[in-house]
Here is the input.
Amino acid sequence: MGTPRGLRNAGSSSSACRFLAAFAVLLALPTLTAGLTRHYTFNVQMTNVTRLCVTKSIPTVNGQFPGPKLVVREGDRLVVKVHNHMNYNVSFHWHGILQLRNGWADGPSYITQCPIQGGGSYVYDFTVTGQRGTLWWHAHFSWLRVHLYGPLVILPKRGEGFPFPRPYKELPPIMFGEWFNADTEAVINQALQTGAGPNISDAYTFNGLPGPTYNCSSKDTYKVKVQPGRTYLLRLINSALNDELFFGIANHTLTVVEADANYVKPFTAKTLVISPGQTMNLLLTTAPNPGSPVYAMAIAPYTNTQGTFDNTTAVAVLEYAPTRASATGNNNLPLPPLPRYNDTNAVANFSSKFRSLATARYPARVPRAVDRHVLFTVGLGTDPCPSNQTCQGPNGTKFAASINNNSFVRPRVALLEAHCQRRYAGVLMANFPTAPPHPFNYTGTPPNNTFVTHGTRVVPLAFNTSVELVLQGTSIQGAESHPLHMHGFNFFVVGQGFGNYDPVNDPANYNLVDPVERNTVSVPTGGWVAVRFLADNPGVWLMHCHFDVHLSWGLSMAWLVNDGPLPSQKMLPPPSDLPKC
Here is the structure.
């Protein structure tokens, strides 16, 4: 098999990687920075943790759950040495970091690297360029991120403030999560075997703590102390495995100032919705004369799934100082009025408020001209049940998920390494469909045949291609939202709506002036979202649903961005300690 169409042929075998290595010093010059080099060590190990009166051994970083907070400044170099002391394979993704020309540090297993095997080590070495705000890190192998996650805070360069009034103080980041009493690796492995939907979580958590609404958990309640009449900066991260979440603080209004490490025009809200993978910075102004010493902060799910889901509410406590209040029971904590679990209108109203600053200092560089128009259908499907077993998916099939009816197959080797070596045969195909292969009424009555196809397919792009991507939800196995995350790029959300995308009339309503810039966007339930991005970062970049159950079922694909002609437009060489498969 020759070089697939759309992929640059830089010679036979591994000549491309040899070329990169020969000029490693020259090509690596951009990693030299005026910023500091910040070193962290991740010892990944099994640790006994108790929640809901259940003790189990879970993967942790340095014995911490959640994991450690990483703090850098824009322009800093971050060096994280990972030592895997578990029996599981593992890799780590620095969610939202652009990893310019440096996909080797991006982290998704079998896409940019082989996983770090038990007893192995790997150094993630990258520079944070042109980014500031709240991001996060998490494991990117199977469902291990349910326990392996932590905040990644990027401070502005020294001397640069925020484009909003300076807050009195910054509160500790809050990470929303899920707790399973069962072993989550057993949960997903059983689901993949039987074809059924996986068992659901037992609780939601604030920084790993379920709080007083759950059995045996009043002592495991997250608390934040504040003073009256002050404005605080609060960083939120949804690290839940499979759930979008509503969030609110009783009797408080919040001001949103950032999304996915991109400043936005400030707006107020009493209730937020945040999808897995997304981050949000808020200004919380406390009451000058609070009527109570404690207020409830709460999260609850947003979903339209036809399957089961964790329909519980987790609570944390906002404590005003000075106070000796210690009660955290439900009777003393009126909950904020969160929307009903399936309130899609509330979600749409909230999502429509996001706008980029679009100032001279923080411009919105949305591509005006488009080189490639791409339409992806995003949703669930099925696989036939093998003849030698009984399956528990829809009508005796197995659940699957796909983009344009292609369910992604995990390769045996890392795609980035295969691309670097130009060894594509038997690894990937450059024929991912950029339009639905079988058009139908996507949000209406689904087709009779819901079987998906399978393959390790990528969309090749020439360097600096401007892309408009429309993500169209489907009603197959029920319409629901899908938080799509793109590695290696931010994108601009230029339009969204309900029903089927209309390529004739919908673009007239696009926002090309100040669209929000994100790395993760939810495809609306029974609707579509349009994004634009510039493919100016060479490498192989995963795009996937951030519901891990859908990722496990194959709802992902990869963009393969070829090198540009200039040295500064080419991939950096692979590191010497890159793990082997």
